[in-house]
Amino acid sequence: MAHDRVTLNVGGKYFVTSRTTLANAGRGSMLSAVIDENWQLVPDVGSNELFIDRNPAYFSVLLDLLRTGELHTPPGMLEKPLYREAEYYGLLDHVRAARKGPLNGNRLDCVASISGRATGDGTAIRASPDGGCCVAHDSMVHVYDWLLEEQIPLTLDYVNVNDVGFLSPNRVVICTNDRESGAGGMASFNVKTGNMEHKFQVVHDGESKNFTAGALASSDKHVYASCRGRSYEYGVGTWDQITGQQVTFLYEGPGRPLGDACKLQWLPRTNLLLVANLFPSSDHSFITLLDPRTKGKVWSWNDAAQRGTADEKIVMDTVAMEDCSTVCVVNQFDNLGFIDMRASNQAVRWSHRYQPSKISEAEERCYSKLACSGSQLFSSKNDSVYVFCSPDWDAAKGVQTARLRRPEGGAISDISVGGDRLFVLHSEEDLFDVWETPGPSQIVNTY
Amino acid sequence: MNPAKKKNFKIEPFKHKVEMDPKYAEKTWKILEDAIHEIYNHNASGLSFEELYRNAYNMVLHKYGEKLYSGVVATMTQHLREIARIVEAAQGGLFLEELDVKWREHNKSLQMIRDILMYMDRTFVNNFNKTPVHELGLNLWRDYIVRSPKIKDRLLNTLLDLVHRERTGEVINRGLMRNITKMLVELGLPVYQEDFERPFLEAASDFYRLESQQLIETSDCPDYLRKAEKRLNEEIERVAHYLDSKSEAKITQVVEREVIGNRLKLLVEMENSGLISMLIDDKYDDLGRMYNLFRRINTGLQTMRELMTAHLRETGRQLVTDPERLKDPVEFVQRLLDEKDKYDKIIQQSFNNDKMFQNALNSSFEYFINLNIRSPEFISLFVDDKLRKGLKGVSEEDVELVLDKVMMLFRYLQEKDVFEKYYKQHLAKRLLSGRTVSDDAERSLIVKLKTECGYQFTSKLEGMFTDMKTSRDTMQGFNSTWAGAEGNDGPTLTVQVLTTGSWPTQSGARCTMPTEILAMCDKFKMYYLSTHTGRRLTWQTNMGTADLKATFGDGNKHELNVSTYQMCILCLFNTSDHLTYREIEQATDIPAPDLKRNLQSLACVKGKNVLRKEPMSKDISEDDVFIFNDKFSSKFYKVKISTVVAQKESEPEKQETRQKVEEDRKPQIEAAIVRIMKSRRLLDHNNIISEVTKQLQARFMPNPAVIKKRIESLIEREFLERDRTDRKLYRYLA
Predict the structure, then answer these.
(1) ipTM of the complex
(2) SS3 letters for B218-274?
(3) Which residues make up the CATH 1.20.1310.10 domain(s) of chain B?
(4) Numbers of helices and strands, H then E, in chain A
(5) Is B74 helix (H, G, I), strand (E, B) or coil?
(6) Alpha carbon distance A155, A157 (integer Å)
(7) Higher pLDDT, B673 or B478
(8) Which of A85, A376, B85, B399 is 20 to 30 A (C-alpha) from A313?
(9) In what order do the strands lie in the sheet with B545-551?
(10) The domain at B654-732 falls in which architecture?
């Protein structure tokens, strides 16, 4: 159909294509608007072409993407300008979908190693929902967007950061200790502007209280944090993400394990909140699943029964895997353990029985960290990340399916999964690795 | 950094080159602003999309996003204020049309503006948490047009006025209405709900409150319901035509509440046209309409059910206690069946076979059928009538139908054992007189009773059928050995051997039979006892029949079909033409009531009076004289002399049956008590009563006083004992 044909003049180079191809770009794209009948095309005199003032080399690649759904770049073409052009046409999502597949621990490539300029070791790394991340260094939080470009560093009154997390790709929440002056606490920031948006308050009897915000988690509506205040501000707070107002507060009596929690995790399928008190912030380990609506404990585990035995195992990190109804834990000797989430007060089933002969060897290392994605479990150990996959955690045996390791970098201090990426933070330098699963059609890497 | 070092850098000229034209942002914005003006003025054909998009892109790229965004807000606001003025100025009916036109134009302009600013939407708006352009355009439209003080109320009033006019029968521009409500929905559901739906529902509520008030004063119930249904459908249709579909449930709720819910009692109880009149007159359509409308109200169906139940119970009570009706049992039961059919049909046709209504119907029937103590007897009589004559020439399916209906009535009976008693009597009569129409029908009914009440209930009835069959076989044997040998000149005897216990026989009804008959009887007795040793035969003369050949004056010959008693009486007239009552009584030895009845049927029935009586009167007295009626004549050769039988039981008979039933119940109650106590060992009085009642209610409703008597009797016989400490407790003694 001749009517379907469109001639584009991009930066002086002619492209003849069809409206159908351009329509593949979708309604949010400039290319579909350019042929929209609202803009009754008045072709330049004497020709039948549409002029677009952009670089034709990149357009050629993107037009091909629209035609075939695959992304192929000629040798020498840089990634960043291609993304910039894709952004101009509104084709960024197409490019990303072609480039990056859903996270699969057994098919991971290290796509970047980013070294920052921070002094001191990074203490925590957190992935954002769209593939960016942030790294906490003492009182600073360094934020990287999905292109891994560093954004404006964030700080909350230069108080040491306890935990940090994304509410959306553009919103970060920082939890810090409190100061007498009222500084510190917990606040959300706009990543793009670097400005603080909202400071979260714990209100008791109509009065705002100072508090130290510990661990952080967020559901799609709420944000949760473990809080240590002086009296009634001790527990887990719940705030509305949009208004920033406190929704509820889970107080606890003597013993106060909730407020000391060092790890929170939101479980979206069961709508439960995992709260974990682990060594070294507490002597005994507690793991609890809370229902924030009823404020009730749905499930709990503690290690009181196991303490004092010969092979003393201290749980150092935990992650709940809803897909497998299992809470995974790891101890100081990097041994993995599994607890059944379907019944309370279960014993840990440890998968390995390894105990180092020399304690000093263990002291030099970083403790193991856990993360999960679907039914895959990631566990860091020394300078590697191990991927485990097993549909049957009851057998108390994670099947190790892959090992991720980079020659440089050294011991791993934290890992995080999000936006179909695995982020691995090294302890020695300000360095983190980004792993992702290649998409159906990979960009031709020219490095 | 070291400040000294910084000075050494020579970056001034370079920096200067990068510095943009300071007026750049202003210039670019001017181009975009002009374009937006052109778009609003429908003059976009001269614009280049690519150029505008590139300019907007550049502004955002060079960090003028905020300027661009606020500029767009200001420009759009300026245009919307202008549009608001035009819409406000529109006269009367043109107001909505103008609004609709402007809305469509605004939408198109907004679409184009969004196209230009697509890049800003993707980056700046996203990063700075601003409202996207399209949503912004809708919000501004909402704030400056729909909610502008001069438009807001006028818009609402215009819309409500149009709806009101349509309700009162005018034709309005539905397409326009649709566009406007669609606009409100597109501005966000809260806008539609707050600015239109809520006042709309309030207006509807007011309208229908008033209308239903007027209507209920002027219309009867069916008429009112028809109008209510019409209104409801109109509102549903209105929603479909020009409102948001979510409004349907809300507006129907308003109509339901105002038109039906608030008038529920009035409607149902409306004199001469309410539910009861509809039921009486079988107004299926009206009832169906009422059901469907009332179903929408919480308590609607319950109200209907309660009234229907009350009505059914009252009419039922009248029916079963009406002394006129009691005269004809068949008609009585037929009326019950007709009533049941009537309501079954109503429930099926109008009430959607609603289980709750069926239950109400059943419980009502159960209630009033048992009000009349004679219902079991009447139902049995009805069956008797049907099986004797009513079912002649009726197809098998229809027979089943009738039997099923009878079974349904039977189910309502509390005193099923009384029914059994009567049924046995009636069945016996049918079998012995050979008057049953269809053996299949008889057996079918017994199977039905068996499935309903269990094997025990029908075992005796089945025994009766077995007796009939063995009797036939016995007679065949008897005839081939005896009757065949002696030739055919003597009387022929047909005997039915009945098992004692299976049949409702009255013992002791003796009579002296004529000698020739007696001889035959003895022969049969000999034959029977020779084949079945150890048995005892008693003659039930009160149940037999005989065929007599009689010769009257003028040589008139007739065959008379009479009862055994009548045969005995008539045989006396072989030797004498003239006998007194006392002579007859002496000669036949028939019990007085039976004798009187038989004489009555021989002498007092017109056209069948083979005897004459002196003096002529209806009743038989002990001084009467009976004379052979020489002048008897009849059109038929065979004449059946039926015994004058009260179809219904006479008062003493009734008492007797009643007594028998009570007598039969005693062992059943005792058996139940023993069964229960055997398993429980220790139980208090109230619990025994309730358990016994539970066990027996399938057959009859035991009277607590009777149960207490049985318990006492069992204590006397040392089956049970009272607990020594608690007198209310009974203990089972093994």
Answers:
(1) 0.78
(2) HCCHHHHHHHHHHHHHHHHHHHHHHCCCCHHHHHHHHHHHHHHHHHHHHHHCCCCCC
(3) 18-146
(4) 6, 33
(5) helix
(6) 6
(7) B673
(8) A376
(9) B545-551, B557-563, B638-640
(10) Orthogonal Bundle (1.10)
**Cβ-Cβ contacts under 8 Å, A90 against chain B:** 118-119, 122
Q: Please say whether the beta carbons of B261 and B225 come within 8 A.
A: no
Q: How far is CA B588 from CA A263, B4, B569, in A?
A: 114, 158, 7
CA A149 to chain centre: 16
Thinking of the domain B18-146, which architecture would CATH place it in?
A: Up-down Bundle (1.20)
Compute the distance between CA of residue B662 and CA of residue B418 in angstroms, rounded to an integer: 9
CA distance A217 to A290: 13
CA–CA distance, B662 with B659 (Å, rounded to integer)? 5
A192 — contact with chain B (CB < 8 Å)? yes
Q: Write the DSSP assignment of B303-351 as a string of letters.
A: HHHHHHHHHHHHHHHHHHH-TTGGG-HHHHHHHHHHHHHHHHHHHHHTS
**What are A173-200's pLDDT values in tens digits?**
999 988 877 788 899 999 888 889 889 9
Q: Average pLDDT, stretch B94-112?
A: 91
- On whether any CB of chain A is under 8 Å from the CB of B14, the answer is no
Single pTM value for the model: 0.69
Name the residue in chain A with its Cα closest to that of B46: A42
With contacts defined as CB-CB under 8 Å, which chain A residues touch B112?
38-39
DSSP letters for B53-69: HHHHHHHHHTT-HHHHH
B122 with A28: Cβ contact below 8 A: yes
Label residue A16 exposed, middle or buried (CB < 10 Å: 0-12, 13-18, 19+).
Answer: exposed
Query: At residue B363, what is the residue type?
Result: S
Distance CA(A273)–CA(B7), nearest Å, equals 56
Rg of chain B taking only CA atoms, in angstroms? 48
Total Cβ atoms within 10 A of residue B571: 18
Among B302, B411, B438, B403, smallest CA distance to B360 is for B302
For B98-125, give the secondary structure using H, E and C. Answer: HHHHHHHHHHHHHHHHHHHCHHHHHHHH
* Parts of chain B belonging to CATH 1.10.10.10: 654-732
CA nearest neighbour of B268 among B245, B241, B289: B289
* Span B289-305, pLDDT tens digits: 999 888 888 888 888 99
Q: Which residues are CB-neighbours of A71 under 8 A, at least 6 positions away?
A: A61, A64, A65, A95, A98, A99, A439, A441, A442, A443
Can you state the angle between helices B300-321 and B355-369, rounded to 10 degrees?
20
Task: Put residue B487 in one of left, alpha, beta given phi > 0 → left and psi -120 to 50 → alpha.
Answer: left
Of A29, A33, A192, the CB nearest to B49: A33
A52: exposed, middle or buried (Cβ count in 10 Å: 0-12, 13-18, 19+) = buried
Across the interface, do B53 and A53 touch by the CB < 8 Å criterion?
Answer: no
Residues of B in contact with A15 (CB under 8 A): none
The CATH architecture of the domain made up of B544-640 is 2-Layer Sandwich (3.30)
**A40 contacts B44? CB cut-off 8 A:** yes
Locate CATH 3.30.230.130 in chain B.
Answer: 544-640
**Which H or E run contains A349?**
strand A349-350
Asked if B627 reaches chain A (Cβ–Cβ under 8 Å), the answer is: no
Q: Any chain B CB within 8 A of the CB of A128? A: no
- Closest Cβ–Cβ partner in A28, A53, A193 for B50: A53
The minimal CB distance from B118 to the residues A38, A90, A193 is found for A90
Residues of chain A contacting residue B106, judged by C-beta atoms under 8 Å apart: none
Quick: pLDDT tens for A43-85: 544 456 788 899 999 999 999 999 988 888 888 888 889 999 9
Contact A137, A119 (CB under 8 A): yes
Task: Judge contact between B403 and B448, C-beta under 8 A.
Answer: yes
Model confidence pLDDT, tens digit, residues B400-447: 888 888 888 888 888 888 888 888 888 888 887 777 777 788 888 888
Helix ranges (H only) for A100-247 are: none
